Amino acid sequence: MDTSNSHEIIAIETTPLVPAKGSKKPKTPLPKLQLGILITLQLAEPIASTSIFPYINQLIRELGITGGDDAAVGYYAGIIESLFFVGQALTVLRWARLSDRIGRKPVLVIGLSGTCISMLCFGLSTTFWGLVISRCMCGFLNGNVVVMKTMMGELTDSTNMAQGFALIPIVWCIGGFVGPLMGGTLARPQDHWPALFSGSFWGNYPYFLPCAIAACLLLLALVMMSLFLQETLSTNCRPKFTSTTVGISNSPDRESLAQKPMANMSMRSLLTPSVVMPIANYAMLAFLDVSFRVILPLFLSTPTHLGGLGFDPATIGSWMALFGITDGIFQALFFARIVDRIGPKRLFCISVSCYAPLMAMFPIMSWILRARGEVDHAITVALLCHLVVTITWDMTYGTIFLFITASAPTNNVLGAINGLGQTSAAVARAVGPALATSLFAASKEHNLLGGNAVFVILIMLAGGLRWLASQLPDEIQDRDD
């Protein structure tokens, strides 16, 4: 008897006619080298952007913009922090569409170069308008974030997408550790190291050193990207005016889009419900998150008699660094596992629900300080509790990126979809800092709801995000089907 034929017969008879529903595809190994380079590029961005947070409020006071009114610092800090996102909102979609045509790397070169130059200009600014121009320049020339998210989507597939996109919030957490620590430590170096920085230059530009170090990091990232990062946009996906059907699901919206040539595909045709809902969630998430990010250092720096904690820039930088590194370690170790266990939608809804206690912790800390009369171990414990809630909240980003990437009907419009998402987020982030800090300043100045009106309003808006989260699809569409 032919043993080979008998084995074939046994194999055929034991093969199930219908694959099991619960069977999962084996995970594709992540392209570690390319992802490592991409992550390094992404790391330079948050370091540069967050390094100004510990000292921006003190810089505004020293420039005399507020005329000595500490309660008004929040207005101007919010304007400066919003200007980057105003510029980004006006141009990021164009950068995203351009990257779909000429490739990802050329757009990254422009973005990294623009950010580097703008950081140097920021450090050399001695007037309010100098700060305004440098932050606007940084936003106008920066399409990096959307291009990097697009490249992450192109370097991963449905089996390892959660692992890949988990790295994005990790990078921002690490940047949130290094950036504030660097900004708070290196600001006013003539005060900390007078033997090394005794020249008149450092007296005239006391905040140039952290900006210069951030610019050097960006320059290093630019060189690394030019030498080692591979282009992820296939030449077959560049405008040959032909359609592609990679990653199309069976939904009517996606089928109709897949049949359209790229040249004829307008932005309006991409605005299907499956695309709009994740983007709407991302926009509201970005607004609430950036509001929290600017209120945190403002609250920490606000004098105690106005309801803040009265920390100096170095202390603020240390606390924000602790928040960033702890958050990053948690995301690295547990995010992908939690997504696999409970699913992206459930995790997103749980994380969104943490925003209310996140805001409630601010007036609680103010009350503790008034009750005890000084910043002691009770405030330290409250800040550590705040950190735990922040970690849970931050898992929203990794999950919403999964929904946005999976919503792209074809790979050759993935940049455009990410561009739409980033534009919406940039608009929200442009409004968020100015609105949140102005509400904070108005709440303290006019004692609205005991100085806590800003927190009540943000909690109410978080309820809207919770409703939007419930409208997301229960499962993420497999892009490989």
Give a brief description.
The protein is mostly helical. 73% of the residues lie in helices and 0% in strands. About 10% of the residues have low confidence.
Defining traits:
mainly alpha
Number of helices in the DSSP assignment: 20
- Portion of residues within helices: over 70%
What's the count of strands?
A: 0
Query: Which consecutive residue ranges, at least 5 long each, have pLDDT under 50?
Result: 6-22, 236-264
Radius of gyration: 24 Å
State the distance separating the first and last CA atoms: 42 Å
* Strand residues, percent: under 5%
Q: What is the average per-residue confidence, as pLDDT, rounded to a whole number? A: 79
Looking at how many chains there are and whether they match, the oligomeric state comes to single chain
Largest sheet: none
Helix-strand category? mainly alpha
Per the principal axes of the C-alpha atoms, what is the gross shape? globular
Order of helices and strands: HHHHHHHHHHHHHHHHHHHH
Q: What features would you describe in this structure?
A:
The chain is an all-alpha fold. 73% of the residues lie in helices and 0% in strands. The chain contains 20 helices and no strands. The protein has helices at residues 3-14, 32-50, 53-62, 73-102, 104-123, 128-140, 144-155, 161-186, 189-192, 200-204, 208-228, 252-258, 267-270, 273-301, 313-342, 344-352, 355-372, 377-407, 414-446, 453-470. Residues 6-22 and 236-264 have low confidence and may be disordered.
